[in-house]
Amino acid sequence: MARLADYFVVVGYDLDKRGGSEGQGHILQRFPEKDWEDNPFPQGIELFCQPNGWQLVPERERPSFFVSVLTDINSERHYCACFTFWEGLDNPQLPKAEASEVDEDEVPGLVQPAQVFAPKSLVLVSRLDHTEVFRNCLGLIYAVHVDSLSVPLETVIGNLLTCIIPVAGGSQINESPVCSLNLSVPQALACDWLLGCFQDQPCQEEREESLRTITLGAGDRQVIQTPINDSLPVSGSSVAHLFRQLGIVNVLYLFCAALTEHKILFLSSSYQRLTDACRALLAIMFPLKYSFTYVPILPGKLLEVLSTPTPFIIGVNSFFRSETQELVGSMTLDVIIADLDGGTVTIPECVHISLLPDPLLQQTQTALSMVLDPELEMADHAFPPSSTQPSTLKIQDKEIRAVFLWLFGQLFHGYRWCLHIIRIHPEPVIRFHKAAFLGQRALTEDDFLMKVLDGMAFAGFISERGPPYRPTDLFDDLIANQVERIRQEECSPHKVMNHIKELAEQLFKNENPYPAVAMHKVQRPAESPGHNDPKNLAMFPLLDDVTVQLFIDHAAAKLQTAPPVVKAELKGMVPSGPPLGDIVDRHGHVLANSARRLEVVRNCITYIFDNKMLEAKKLMPAVLRALKGRAARVCLTQELNQHVLQNRAVLDDQQFDYIVRMMNCTLQDCSHMDEHGIAAILLPLVTAFCRKLGAGITQFAYSCVQEHMVWTNMQFWEAMFYSDVQNHIRALYLEADGGEQSIAQECGPAAGGQELLGALELASEQSRLWPTLSKEQQSERVQKEESTVFSQAIHYANRMSYLLLPLDTSKNRLLNRSGIGDVESVSNSYVTNSIAGSMAESYDTESGFEDAESSDVANSVVRFINRFVDKVCNESGVTNEHLKALHTMIPDIVQMHIETLDAVHRESKRLPPIQKPKLLRPILLAGEELVMDGMRVHLISDGREEATGALGGPALLPAEGAIFLTTYRLIFKGTPNDPLVGEQVVTRSFPIASLTKEKRISVSLSMDQFIQEGLQLRSCTFQLLKIAFDEEVASDLAEVFRKHMHKLRYPQHVQGTFAFTVGQSGKTLVEHKTKDKNQSIKTLSKNLVKSAKRTIGRQYVTRKKYSPPTWENRSSLQSELDEDELSVSEELDQGSLTLSSTIRSSDRQTMSNVVERACCRDYQRLGLGTLSNSLTRSKNEPFRISTVNRMYTVCRSYPGLLIVPQSIPDSTIQRISRCYRQNRFPVVCWRNSRTKAVLLRSAGLHAKGVVGFFKSPNATSAGPSQADSTSLEQEKYMQAIISSMPSYCEPSGRNTLGGFTSTHMSTSDSSDKLRQPKIGALMKQVMGGKEDVPGTFSRGALGQRARVISLSQPRVSGKARNPPGGKWGSIRGSGRLSAYNPEVGNRLSSKESPQPNGGPSEALFLRQQRAYLYIIGDKTQLKGGKQDSFQQWEVVPIEVCDVRQVKNSFKKLIKACVPSSATSEPSMTFHRCLEESEWMCLLHRVLQVSVLVVELLDTGSSVMVSLEDGWDVTTQVVSLVQLLSDPYYRTFDGFRLLVEKEWLSFGHRFSHRGAQTLASQSSGFTPVFLQFLDCVHQIHLQFPMEFEFSQYYLKFLAYHYVSNRFRTFLLDSDYERIELGVLYEEKGERKNPQVCKSVWDYIDRLNKKTPIFFNYMFSPEDEEVLRPYSFISNLKVWDFYTEETLSEGPSYDWELVQRGRQERLAEEVPDKPDTTTPKSQRRIVWPCYDSRSRVVPDAITKLLQDLQSLEAELGMPPEKWKDTWDKIKANQRAEAKLENRPSFNSSLLMSSNLSHQRRSQGVYLPESGVGSSINLAMDRETSTTSTPVAGRPSTSTLYSQFQSTESENRSFEGILFKKGALLKPWKPRWFVLDKTKHQLRYYETRQDKECKGVIELAEVESVIPGTPTMGAPKNIEEKAFFDLKTTKRVYNFCAQDSPNAQLWMDSIQSCLSDA
Asked: Minimum mean pLDDT among 61-65, 765-769, 1320-1324, 1652-1656: which range?
């Protein structure tokens, strides 16, 4: 029973304290004046009556009502119902209090301006929440006052304060009330009569019914419906209103936010709505109760409360919106704001609300929408039902609450199975096992549930609902009896709705037990006073407190005399519901392991205990795999349990090792929470299994399984402790009751089902009996329970010390994680017997800190156990004496255990160590030294599947071996763990200089199941070493290894790299001469550098004093000079007067080296200028070699000698260079020998130079005159280059396209016209494909008009002119290149054929000219420039790939080719990652630009490549262009020269891009050169017969350019190389055999020994220009990125591979003598292990090898392979000539291996039998020397001696179309096949007497059907084409039709066979 109202208060406006804008309220009267003992008067009511502040208003407002909620210090809620009305005041300025009286004689309706209205509030304070009753009661009091009823107000208030009603429990019987109030009873006695009902009612139910009807004695009557069960919240219709205001999703957000303890703020302009919304939110949280700050209406004066750091639910009036937002904004913005009026919920960005787990969220939303909007489901029905109105608000409210109740039923089902009852008497103490609950629900990862279970609300839920003996409610029933129903209904929303409706009905019944009763009779004011109320109200009178107090005292006296009302609480045992396990099993989460796997685990354990160790060893890997699953782990623990007798199981060493390994594996995959209870079941076992080490010394398993996070987790120990205590207390009462005597003391899901049930049942029974026991029995039980807990605490102190103290307490191993409990790193303490004598021991024992450390270990363990004991003992109610005893005991327990462990540790070290594979030593290079000796490691498999056996074959990884760090490499050498391949050797290594990323990792080794410290090392040679250090390697040793590795990877200076340090500490004896010579060159180069430094910034300096080198040095230099047959002179330059006219002798000596290095021979070969002694040089030469940069003063990164136009003086060059980035001005690097077009390279222009460069000459310049002169000089420079071209010198060549050809080009005139569309298409693709963008640069006098024309005829079809044959590949436009200057492309693609529509061709309108010089520039650099209409150059803007792009692309490429871990995600497949890396796109772009440049050069335009800084993309493009255009660069010598010239001399920044030193470490690795090599590889694949070198040669360079083994690719420019003295030393030291400093020397040397670099298919065509396809679909992934050979490591250090093979052969020899059994010739080749090219060599290599071995057997001196090869070729040719038959083309020997053959070729085998030997012949007789072949003489001169006469024997004749030589079109010719002369001749026409050319049939190799090539005759079927292949070239023919073609082929074939 409870009072309906505790206090009645009248609060008014305080006239005395008003000041400023805001007034105050004060309590005028309160009843009763004394506080109730059980409920003191709440403070601060005045604030809550007027939350917006007390203010006077000019007009009367309507009365208002709302309920505020105050919370007292005991967390009790007080409901303050405020009824506010307004009273008139006279002029408030008057200080008198009488002014509050109103003069009633005033004329009504005339409101004086002076009159104002003050608020007055009537407040009821109650602990019950009956909003409507309060509204009625206060309204009645107001009505009595306003209408001046006869009832005294004191009586009404007295009755109100003496009303007693039941808190809950109206009966369920729907009857009409028996007690109807007799209104004739005097009002004063009405309450007495009411009290009399207590005695008079015959039964409890009737009494309750009578108490439900109350009256206040003013002719009123109210029925109060008290809820049946007060544990369920009462919500009225507030929940339904909340959902209507905010919507489903928003309320769900608020619901989840409240449960996960966020701050929630409601805003509304209505107070009552704020209260209702807060009440609703609390109602849907049932059965959880909100325990943080809860203020539904917060007064404005208390807004600071919002800045509290704790969670809250607060309501604030919208009036304060701005103040609220300021407050919230000044905080950390972590408040969720729900605006009830606007229907919005605002969640700040920093707040993350965890939502319900997925299926539940969806189901809840569906159910809510079915409740709130039932029409939604029918909305699409063709025949919707007549009406599907939602339920009434009150019913809907309960339905929504039912949804949330159902939701909690699903969330919390089975929670009672995870309760631990640890005390029953005097009060039950219950703990919840969170980890087990989450584990069995398989929700360990769920963020929402985790937060809810950790929250305060759930803690309250457990303490309230945990006790097993208590009254139950609807939620308990749901959890106990309806879980199964909920689970079955999950998939059917309609069944869910039925269930929800049933629950809603129960909720409604609880809140409205008597819905039929509605006897409300409450007086309302006759006419509520509004704004225009004519009558003026009297003031609310002062009440007589004595009268009211009498009422209260009278009622209190009555209550004391009345017998106490005892409503028997219906307590009972709370049912637990179905256990969790079954449910989860049906979901299939647990039964992941098949029965077969469990069988394997059982068998293995049986073998171990039967001592069948060999069998157990075989099964072990399978067992360790199986133990990943939970079922197998449980099975393991059950099996092990069976082998424990009396808590002990003694094993031998091997058994012990196996059992420990399995335990470690089991614990390895347990999280620190141990949600599956595996660690819990293992805990008793690790103290049971042991082995004897010596007399009285036993080692238990716990000392070997300590390295798992679970042991350092306090929550795990608490759960374990509570679980054990529960078992013991259960046993205690079972024994007391004479029940079972033996109780299993294990715990956890395996054996816990029945036990747990028993414990709660037993506790419930004991709680029921407790009141019936005597005091002695009660205290005895309390004492027994307490001592049980105490003894368990001692037991656990011991257990924890077992698992927390490491075996070797001198090592702070487990505890080095900054105190136990930190979840940090993981190393391994499997210290059984393998740690003996390891380095780790010596490291620690030498430190001398053993005592300090061991005590430190002890202290931290003691602290941890003390913390644990304090917590559990306080919670379980252990007495203070016992607790003190425990604290004194713990240090002794720990110390005692440490002493025991010392003995165990000492004995365990004496055990023989486990046999580990011996460490294999690697083979080292000459001069390579070990920095750190081998450390035992495990090589773990990464994402490459070949080595793990995933693609078939044995698992080569993981392997055990050692890691070695040398001055040059990082090497792993070891043997696989898999016993099937245990005898193989696995090697993985890479140069230390190629290390790109090092990362620490934690690795679990599948065999030993320890978590190891490891390293993941990635190399840019596409290798990955993933290693885990063995337990014998001390962690500080691993750290030392890392430091050494970093030191070697990033030396302070480039001289610290291996190429410089090699052999320094080795041989000290060096020949004196070499040394001296070397010294002199070094001093010389130093002088050179000094002088260069002096002259920086000046044009030239005449040095007065110079000490020439000594005579010997000079003579040695002179001899070199003479070898070169070159001398240097400088031309006297008119432009600069300061220049000395001759070069001094000292300069000349320096220059000799510069000349050699600057590849002058190549320039001479190209005809680009010579160095002669005479000062007078032929002025006819267009170019000269300038020595302006000989001191590296003009440009640091350029070579000393440069090719510039003849007419440009050096002074101009110095000025021009400043306009270019890095001073890299344009220089010539190659000239086309046919068209004489030149290729120039430079850096991009400085930004300021761009506009000046392109501005028209007559523009006024605002800048200084110097800028003008520079731009003019630049123009001169360009003009000089253009003038050097023969085509420019022609008078007609200025204006027309036709005149662009000159005499030396007349032969290719017609072909040029055919080629132009191609270039245009190319240009468009390079610059971007869109044709509708107007060009930025326009050329020609008719620029605008030209543009119109070129855009109006965009159809440039090159299909017919672009056949697939020949050496041409088209380029697909890349989407990345945006359109920039389409006009250039359109103009270049203009063609002279008539348009399809019959109109005249473009050329008739405007015969546009082509530029003489194209500048390939960066699009971003060229914006805003304006092209001069009369200049002869044109800019082609392209987008270049930035260096950052290359760097990022390479990183992704490495990860794609060498992934660090295997993944099955579809987004992570190799091809997907390759595509994302965009590496192929970058190659495509570089090749595309290169092919465009080749085309432009080939058509006679010069090209200047002017991109970025001129040392990355520029170098790539320029090198590729030369490689494609000039066959010389496709030989060994040529390619070397190309790299030396373009990459080394022209200053590609190898050191910087390769991050070779500490300084460049931050810039990262950018493989620009590798990209170039990849492009060469792509071209090589498409033209395999054009390269003298093989693919291996390219891989070799790709490997060694980052390896730092050679000095070739070190440093960033020639200047830096001279400074270090390494540029010219290579010659001097070439005699030293120990080390090769130059990669080229090494390649030469190796090439002489073995044909590994040679391409047997090399048979080039003369002057062949290559045009590769650059489609991405034509590009292949380079196998350099993906292949590896684990048997021997990378094959690029040839000596190592050879020595390794010899050693392996030597090992295999002893097995040979057993020759009785025939030995199989078959050999298994494993992917990624064997080198396939070595095991299965190609035919030629095999024959050469056989030849060598035969020579060795016969004792003959071995012949060099090249000599053999050349001899065979020569013989073959001679035979072919003698026998006059076509030779077998040797290049076909390997054609079957080609993926993409780009040369049309055919095979013809003669009928005569081929001899036994294979005929080898080469196509060309020219040797592979460096000198280029002179141009082929024209066919007419060759065959002019043949004169034809009419009398010739013409066997067959007719017209054939013949494709001309390179660049020539198809032409019809009259062909004559002459059997007699064995010739095929051709004439211009049939009548022509002079033969145009002859094909000797003796040279014909084959005749095969052909395909139409570019420019072939149209409208002729494909079969009419055929090709004739001779030893020199391929002829393409086309007959009139296919029969004709067949006739020709047959005739030629018969001629050949007749021969």
From this structure: 1320-1324
The DSSP code for 1004 is E
Q: Are the C-beta atoms of 1546 and 1515 separated by less than 8 Å?
A: yes
> H-type helices in 212-246, by residue range?
238-246
CA angle 317, 318, 322 (to 5 degrees): 115
Length of the chain, please? 1955
Give me the phi and psi of 66, to 5 degrees please: -155, 170
Q: Phi/psi of residue 682, each to 5°?
A: -75, -25
In the chain, the amino acid numbered 278 is C
Tokens 């919390």 sit at which residue?
Answer: 412
Of 514-518, 716-720, 1864-1868, minimum mean pLDDT range? 514-518
907 with 694: CB under 8 angstroms?
yes
Beta strand pairing call for 1202-1205 and 1183-1186:
antiparallel
**In Å, how far from its chain's centre is CA 490?**
37
What's the average model confidence in pLDDT over 353-371? Answer: 89
d(CA 417, CA 726): 13
**What whole-number distance in Å separates Cα of residue 1258 and Cα of residue 490?**
85
- From CA 995, how far away is CA 1454, in angstroms rounded? 12
Q: Are 367 and 403 in contact (CB under 8 A)?
A: yes
Residue 1921 pairs with which residues in a beta bridge? 1934
Question: What are the DSSP calls for 1488-1531, one per residue?
Answer: HHHHHHHHHHHTT-EEEEE-TTSSSHHHHHHHHHHHHH-GGGGS
What's the pTM value of the predicted model, to 2 decimals? Answer: 0.52
Q: What are 1402-1419's pLDDT values in tens digits? A: 333 333 467 888 999 888
Place of tokens 């009405």: 190
DSSP state for residue 1541 in the 8-state scheme: I
Q: Classify residue 1531 as left (phi > 0), alpha (psi -120 to 50) or beta.
A: beta
Tokens, residue 1482: 């970058």
Of 167-181, 548-562, 808-822, 1917-1931, which range is least confident? 167-181
Q: 848 is written with which tokens?
A: 């001398």
Lowest model confidence (mean pLDDT) among 73-82, 323-332, 1218-1227: 323-332
With helix as H, strand as E and coil as C, how does 1378-1428 read? CCCCHHHHHHHCCCCCCCCCCCCCHHHHCCCCCCCEEEEEEHHHCCCCCCC
Asked if 1852 and 1863 touch (Cβ cutoff 8 Å), the reply is no
> 1214 pLDDT exceeds 60?
yes
Omega cis (within 30) before 958: yes
68: β partners: 80
Please choose, from the candidates 1676, 1892, 151, the residue with its C-alpha nearest in 3D space to the C-alpha of residue 142.
151
Highest mean pLDDT among 457-471, 1110-1124, 1597-1611: 1597-1611
Quick one: tokens of 296?
């539904």
1807 by Cβ neighbours in 10 Å (0-12 / 13-18 / 19+) ranks as exposed
Q: Are the C-beta atoms of 373 and 248 separated by less than 8 Å?
A: no
Whole-number Å distance between alpha carbons of 88 and 86: 7
Q: Which of 1344-1358, 1522-1536, 1645-1659 has the lowest mean pLDDT?
A: 1344-1358
Contacts of 1235 (CB under 8 A, 6+ apart): 1287, 1305, 1497, 1498, 1499, 1500
Residue 705: closest CA among 722, 725, 721, 688:
688
Burial zone of 1065 (CB within 10 Å; 0-12 exposed, 13-18 middle, 19+ buried)? exposed
326: phi > 0 → left, psi -120 to 50 → alpha, else beta; which? alpha
Task: Identify the CA nearest to 1257 among candidates 1237, 1275, 1245, 1239.
Answer: 1275
Q: What is the CA radius of gyration of the chain?
A: 50
